Amino acid sequence: MTFGFGSGLGRFFWLAAEAAEKAGEEHAEAVHHGTYVFFKVFGIEVTSEVTTMWAIMLIMILFAWWGTRRLEKVPRGAQNVLEMVIEGIIDGILAPVMGKHKARKYFPLLGTLFIFILISNYSGLLPGAGFLPGFKPPTGTLGGTLGLATVVFLATHLAGMQENGVLKYLKHFFEPYVFFFPLNVLEALVKPISLSLRLYGNIFGEETLLAVILFQIFAAFAPIPIMGLSLIFGAVQAYIFTMLASVYIAQATEGGH
User: Fold this and answer.
1) Cβ-contact 30, 141 below 8 angstroms
2) Distance CA 256, CA 188 (A)
3) In three state form, how does the secondary structure of 34-69 look?
4) Dihedral sign of CA atoms 162, 167, 173, 177 in order
5) pLDDT by position in tens, the chain (length 257)
C-alpha cells in the first residue's frame, strides 16, 4: 500500500513537472515568435497582436479627439495635421479611383484603414517589435490582415446593395450568363484573400529580414538602409491595400460590374 501510494505520488509529481516544463517551452517559443497570450475572453485568446492593435486604436482615437475638440475656420496645430491627412488620402488615393463624391462618402472606412495599416506597419520598426511580450504589429500576422480584408469584403457588398438595391446587386453574380455564377462568387471570395495575403506576406517578410540582419548579421549596429526601405514599403503596402479596397467598393457601387 505504502509502496503503491509512493509510486503514485511520485508519478503525479513527475507528470506535473513534465507539464510545467512543456508549458515553459511553449511560453518561451511564443515569446520568441512575438506571440504572447495574456488572457482569454469567452475562449478567445488576447495575444500581443491584439494588445498592439488596441494601442494603435487608442492612439488614433486620442489624436482624432485632440484635433477636433476645438474646430476653427483657420486650422492650426492638430486640426491642421488632420485636415492635411484627410485631404491627402481623398485626393491622392480615393478620388482618382471612385470620384470625389464617393471618396468623401467612404472616407471614414477607407481613410481609417489606411491610417491604421500605416501605423501598424511602422510599429514593426520600433525597438523590440515582434520580440517583446505584448508588442507585435497586427499586419505582421495572417489573422490581423484577414480581419482587415473581411471588413473590406463586407463593406464592399453592403455598399453595393445599398447603392443598387439587394436584388439588382445580387443579379450581377449571374451575368453575363447563369453558369458564370460560380466564377463570380469565387472572384468575390478571392479578393479579400489576396488582399490579406499580399499585406501579410510583405510585412512578415520585412520583419523577418530585419530580425535576421539586426540580430545575426549586423548585431553591432542597426541596419539603417533596410529600415529606410521598410518606411517606404510600409507606406506602399498601406496605399495598395486602401487603393484596391476603394476599387472594389467603386465597382460594387457602379452596378456591380
Assistant:
1) no
2) 11
3) CCCCCEEECCEEECHHHHHHHHHHHHHHHHHHHHHC
4) negative
5) 444 444 444 554 444 445 444 444 444 444 444 566 666 777 777 777 888 888 899 999 999 999 888 888 887 888 888 989 999 999 999 999 988 999 999 999 999 999 999 998 888 777 655 556 667 788 878 888 888 889 999 998 899 888 888 888 888 777 776 767 788 788 778 787 777 777 776 666 666 666 666 555 554 455 566 667 778 888 888 898 999 899 889 988 885 44
- pTM, entire model: 0.73
User: How long is the chain?
Assistant: 257
Cell of 144: 490581423
Residue with grid cell 487608442, as numbered in its chain: 58
CB count within 10 Å of CB 227 equals 14
For residue 136, count other CB atoms closer than 10 A to its CB.
Answer: 29
- Residues 36 and 47 sit within 8 Å (Cβ to Cβ): yes
